Amino acid sequence: MFMFIVRRVLQAIPVLFMVSLVTFIMIRSAPGGPFDEDRAVPPEVIKNLNERYHLDDPLWKQFLDYIANVVQGDLGPSFKYPSHTVNDLIAAGLPATLELSFYALIFALVTGLTAGIIASLKTNSMQDYIPMSAAMVGICMPTFVLGPILLLVFGIWLDWLPVAGWGEIPGDKILPSITLGSVYAAYIARISRGGMLDILSQDYIRTARAKGLSTSRIVFVHALRGGITPVISFLGPAIAGLLAGSFVVESIFQIPGLGRFYVTAAFNRDYTMILGCTIFFAFLIILFNLLADIVLVWLNPKLRQELEARG
């Protein structure tokens, strides 16, 4: 297991480097610059700003200097917020983004696993057709469509829940969490259904039924661990998608998360903020995928044996 983790960490280094390089090339290829304003700025001021932030250096040198600072944990100053560094802005917006993603993940797991398990136990019945049809609708409906619909119905028409904010009014975290987690709940429902159907058809499950074990004991003691293995594999990409998708949801519900800085940075060509957020989220994606793989290996004895055989 230790060597498996070491190999994955070593593989992550070139991935992060390529993400940084591609992002740097793309943002520097876009027209305009971080100091372009609606009103005219004297050339001397622009020159001084470029010198201060070393934007007049060759591009290859700017990139290498930036990577050297990133290795030391410094993501650079923000061009939009001169009194703050990118590290400061990420630290300010990250808690709300992580909290939103966490609640959305809990909603997705509880809803998706419940629907998938029930559907696998009641195949070809209404208890199978209804949740799987709802899951297909959830997969097809993007967050920027679902969010306004939930906001309109539950926030304006029924007036049950707040339509904006985060942690200021009771219930203001419900709609954003459901909006962000619904599509992943739909995926988890279909994946868990398939995984449970495969396990429930195994010989040892038929033996357990022949012994007269209750359905709940068969599901939760004997079948669930193997049935949710595909869901564990899906959690790494799902968490990454939750973090990235939170930008849209934060904009819809006016949540003070990291998404607002990232979107603002894109409009203002805040090079360091765009690079810093991209690298940071790439790191989180790699980290959560690694954690999902570790849990998957822990749940699957065959994978552990293969890793031990490889050394």
Walkthrough of the structure:
Helices cover 77% and strands 0% of the residues. By secondary structure, it is mainly alpha-helical. It has one domain (90-310): Orthogonal Bundle (MetI-like fold), CATH 1.10.3720.10. The chain is flat, with a radius of gyration of 24 Å.
Salient structural properties:
311 residues; MetI-like fold; 13 helices; mainly alpha
Question: Topology of this protein?
Answer:
Layout: H1 2-29, H2 43-52, H3 59-71, H4 86-121, H5 126-140, H6 143-157, H7 174-200, H8 203-210, H9 215-227, H10 229-253, H11 258-268, H12 271-299, H13 301-310
Summarize the structure.
The chain has helices at 2-29, 43-52, 59-71, 86-121, 126-140, 143-157, 174-200, 203-210, 215-227, 229-253, 258-268, 271-299, 301-310. The chain has 311 residues and is an all-alpha fold.
